[in-house]
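Researcher: Structure prediction, please.
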Amino acid sequence: MRAQFVLSEIGVGLRRNLTMTFAVVVSVALSLALFGGSLLMSDQVNTMKGYWYDKVNVSIFLCNKSDAESDPKCAKGAVTTEQKEQIETDLDKMSVVETVTHESSDQAYKHYKEQFGDSPLAASLTPDQMQESFRVKLKDPEKYQVIATAFDGRDGVQSVQDQKGILDNLFGLLNGMNWAARAVMAMMLVVALMLIVNTVRVSAFSRRRETGIMRLVGASGFYIQAPFIMEAAVAGLIGGGVACAFLLIARYFIIDHGLALSEKLNLINFIGWDAVLTKLPLILATSLLMPALAAFFALRKYLKV
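Model: Predicted structure follows.
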């Protein structure tokens, strides 16, 4: 097969159906940009999980005098020195515990003033109203229930709280947004495939005389189909290139410059350029193979060669 003939036929086909070719490029670009974005969102969520889950603590809040008067869990009174020592001893013996830090009521009051000093409530609080607590860092954040079972309801313990539960709600929201993006991506892929099939069929119909002559002179089925398949592949590849450019530009302007979220949201560990670059070959391969396969199966039935 002469490469010059195939390339000329590709150029003719793309120019002849310029409007539909443009529609294919746009739909492929949008769908694959969403595809790449959803993959990057998954990476971002996993990166944030690894970063934050490593920092979360289980907090064991101890009863104070105010709790003894208002909270049924502290009906036996404020925590005693012996109870605090026993709790700390039991924590040190547990294999799931990595470190234990005690926070006194004075320290809790100081931290509260640092974080919420402008709040009207802060002016009315006193150190003795703040709860003492043990901040427990676990070797495995998933083992929270072991701590809760051992200390929740014990004398002197007001409550056991897991910071991981708060993060789980956030990550659940992010995962929900990611699945929504994937649903939109799937619809866009269906639209792109339908456009590819229709474009190939219109192109084949407009050149039915040429293909008929080629069939009569004994051209093989693949020889007849190749220009149409490569037209779809080239249009898809252009769309894939646009999708890759969109992801690179989005990463540059949203995280590094423009919005500069990496500077404004220091608490978030954003994915790096390596995560984006590793997705580009997959997007380009998909943009090439998806239209080519769609065109191949569409032509098998349409040309009947």
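Model: The mean pLDDT is 80.
Researcher: Thanks, that helps.
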